[in-house]
Every structure is written in C-alpha cells, then in structure tokens.
Amino acid sequence: MARQVDNPRGNEMTTTTKLLLSALLTAGLASMPALAQDKAKPAAMEKPKAAAAEKKAGEGTTKVLVDNEKVRVTEVRYKPGEGSEMRERGVRVTRALTSGTMERTSPDGKKTTVEWKAGDVKYFPKETFANKNVGKTEVVLFVTALK
C-alpha cells in the first residue's frame, strides 16, 4: 500500500504519485533537446540527390552541407579540366581545402587565373563567371554564400 505524505498546504500526495510525476517530468526534459533541433524538410533533403543526378559531363561536384534562410555552405570539387557554367554567384567566403589553379571567364570573355593554396580564405562580392580547373590536381573549395 502506498504511503501518504502531508503537504504543508494540507493536500496529500502518495509516493506513487510523486514517482509518476518525477518520471514524467524527467521524460519531458530529456526530450526537449530533440524538439529544439531543426527539422529537415523532405524537399530539401532531396535537392542534393537531384543536383547530383543532373550533373553534366565536365562539371565539378557540389555537395550541400548547410542550406537555410541565411546561408548556403557547399563543398565543391573540380577535377582537372572540370568547371562550372556561366552563372551569377552571390556574396561568399571561400576556403581552399586543396591547392590548385582555377580559371574564371567573365561574361565579356575576359579570363582571370586564381591560384589556390590549401588553407587560403578569400572573400568574393556578387559576380558572374564560369569556372574551370586548369591545373593538374583536384581543387576542393569550401564555400559559404550569404543569402
């Protein structure tokens, strides 16, 4: 039989009731971190797969690491001879994970060579260009673009 304990307010609460309330409180607190995490959207989870499936021959590989309302973080890999099509790129910070040589072609046809050393970090404004790895090694870039 459960023992009853006097409460200073005059209410009585059994030991069983206290244990039950403690267990519920503990379970509720333990589940709070899981509730606080961002829920991935099913459509967002399908985007990287769809992007990989649409890769054209000669293009680099882009792996989306974070994509939310404020930033898009990607890891981009260009094997020698691979590149990207002409497109507008937003404000971003890029870090080279490997060394290599990239060639940028602007809409007016002007070509610029960008030398990357592993660990280099560069800021780029909004701009439009096509990219191509003209070196002999794979270039891996970590790109954080603001939205």
Helix and strand content put the structural class at: alpha+beta
* Main sheet: strands, sense, barrel: 5 strands, antiparallel
Q: How many strands?
A: 11
The total count of helices amounts to 2
Distance between the termini: 64 Å
Query: What is the CATH-assigned architecture of the largest domain?
Result: Sandwich
The Cα radius of gyration reads 27 Å
CATH C-level class of the largest domain is: Mainly Beta
Shape summary: globular
- How helical, in percent, are the residues? 10-25%
Spatial order of the strands in the main sheet? 3-4-11-6-9
Mean of residue pLDDT? 79
Features:
globular; 147 residues; Jelly Rolls; 4-stranded antiparallel β-sheet; 2 domains; alpha+beta; 5-stranded antiparallel β-sheet; 2 helices
Architecture overview:
With 147 residues, this protein is of the alpha+beta class. It folds into 2 domains: 4-36, no CATH class; 42-146, Jelly Rolls, CATH 2.60.120. Helix content is 23%, strand content 44%. The protein is built from 2 helices and 11 strands, in the order ββααβββββββββ. The strands form 3 sheets. It has a 5-stranded antiparallel β-sheet with strand order 3-4-11-6-9. It is globular and about 80 Å long. Residues 39-53 have low confidence and may be disordered.
